[in-house]
Specification:
Elements: H1 2-16, H2 62-65, E1 69-73, E2 76-80, H3 83-91, H4 93-99
Antiparallel strand pairs: 1-2
Length: 102
């Protein structure tokens, strides 16, 4: 019985010391921890000029953290932190653009 209590106590102690992963404001394939890494200078997408420095879907600053996907819409190039964000933008691009004009 003592062994079980010791194992349970040790497991509880170790689980309390784990940092909880912060999730991005929406369901998407990277955690907020990836936002601590600045953009990769070797990624050719990070060398392009975009119509906005923000990913309009999640409001991540892609000029600071980098671009993973792009889309050209109405003659302007937009950068996104992920394909999920790009796909979200493309479902209602005019709505995102209008919301970010304010």
């Amino acid at each position: 019985m003592k062994k079980i209590l010791v194992v349970f106590s040790l497991a509880a102690l170790l689980s309390c010391n784990k940092e909880e992963k912060k999730r991005h404001p929406h369901d998407h394939p990277h955690s907020m921890e990836s936002e601590n890494m600045y953009k990769d200078p070797n990624n050719p997408l990070n060398k392009l000029t975009y119509a906005s420095k923000l990913d309009f879907t999640c409001n991540m600053d892609v000029s600071k953290y980098g671009v993973s996907d792009t889309v050209t819409y109405k003659g302007k190039l937009y950068g996104f932190c992920s394909t999920v964000c790009k796909d979200g933008f493309m479902k209602k691009p005019d709505e995102y653009l209008a919301k970010n004009q304010q």
